[in-house]
Amino acid sequence: MARIAPGNTPKFGYFVLIILASLFLYLDIQYKTFTSTKNFFNAGLIATNLVIKNIVFTPISNLYKLTNNKLALINSNELLVNELELSKSENFLILNKDKLFNDNSELYAFINDIPNDYPYEIAIISSFDTNLYKCCDNHRLHLFNNSSPFKKGGTVINSTGIIGQISDSNNKVSEVILISDINHSIPIKSNTFFCNANGSGKPQVLECKYDPSLWKESFEIGRIFYSSGLGGIFPEGIMVGSIISIENAADGDILLNIESIANPLTQKNVIVLYPNDIK
Length: 279
What we know:
It is a single chain. The protein has two domains: 13-95; 103-279, Rod shape-determining protein MreC, domain 2 (Thrombin, subunit H). It is built from five helices and twelve strands. It has helices at residues 11-31, 35-95, 97-100, 104-112, 130-135, and strands spanning 120-127, 140-144, 155-158, 161-169, 173-178, 185-190, 193-199, 205-210, 224-227, 239-248, 254-260, 269-273. A six-stranded antiparallel β-barrel has the order 1-2-5-4-3-12. Strands 6-7-8-11-10-9 form a six-stranded antiparallel beta barrel. The termini are far apart. Belongs to the MreC family.
């Protein structure tokens, strides 16, 4: 097969280019001929860099700083809210300390120096299905455990009053059954009248039934009920709520509908009490 012979190399063209380049270099060095061109090119590069920085990088940097500042502000605000909620709950505990504990020695210890084994713990709600709470009759929430699970039966309060009690615990969370749950009951009293108020399944509403043939006293709207302390689970003398309606039940009993003053929706920080023993 025949091979194609290479063509002639354009040596003259290369020589001319070298001469021209040398001439331009000489003129620039000797007379600064291209200084203005170089300055214009450098100025263009600087301007381009500034435009890119101001249009692209600076807004991104500012957005990042703004996001971080906003997150820090949110975290700070959440911390302040938590501290306020805990303060409200502890104020409730302090104001009602003479009703929460039957043992005067514990009360004396509280007033003078809160011991490490004092029978209450601060807790944080980990989950609360508020839609289920508003629509259905099973009212539960869960607390993050502290160093150990909360003791079953512990009374759970917030700054508004008694909201429920510990019903179950595992290694991570403890379940709270609210006093309005249809499966819950709390002993209450008003003067000399005692009853077990059952949860109605409606938010903040309890039901108390009694036989009018056995109890002749009449009740009125607004009458206040307190925890009776019977059974040793709930502290005695804490205001539970007041009558909002009175109905005649189908079996002939009188049904008192009592609205609880304690609202579990107000805050996520609560206190777990153990009024009759030490955890």
